[in-house]
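pls design
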């Protein structure tokens, strides 16, 4: 009995969670997707500036300013959302979790559809 009491009971060491090495192709694919979203953001920014500076057919300058501001604001949302999305995908890949869902595409499509309707109405009444 004494030998049992004298022996130290060691608890098994729990390894620290490590960042898993991933296939570089997945990381690079996530970066390419991020860059595609950034290109979309830059195109929106250029489109917003072009609407503000070049479109003179709207009924009032206010409509032109609203459409341009909406497109430029969407560009900022897409750029910020692209980074957040890339970070969450990268974390999921490194942690061997399922990829997270993203609402960025829904937001992009809905806002662009709304801007198209506003611009179409503005051109029609001009």
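designed seq:
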């Amino acid at each position: 009995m004494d030998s049992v009491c004298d022996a130290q009971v060691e608890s098994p060491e729990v390894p620290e969670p490590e960042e898993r090495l991933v296939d570089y192709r997945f990381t690079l694919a996530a970066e390419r997707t991020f860059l595609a979203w950034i290109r979309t953001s830059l195109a929106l920014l250029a489109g917003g500036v072009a609407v503000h500076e070049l479109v003179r057919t709207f009924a009032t300058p206010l409509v032109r300013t609203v459409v341009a501001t909406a497109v430029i604001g969407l560009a900022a949302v897409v750029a910020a959302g692209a980074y957040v999305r890339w970070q969450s995908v990268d974390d999921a890949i490194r942690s061997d979790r399922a990829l997270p869902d993203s609402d960025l595409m829904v937001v992009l499509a809905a806002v662009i559809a709304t801007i198209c309707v506003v611009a179409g109405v503005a051109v029609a009444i001009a």
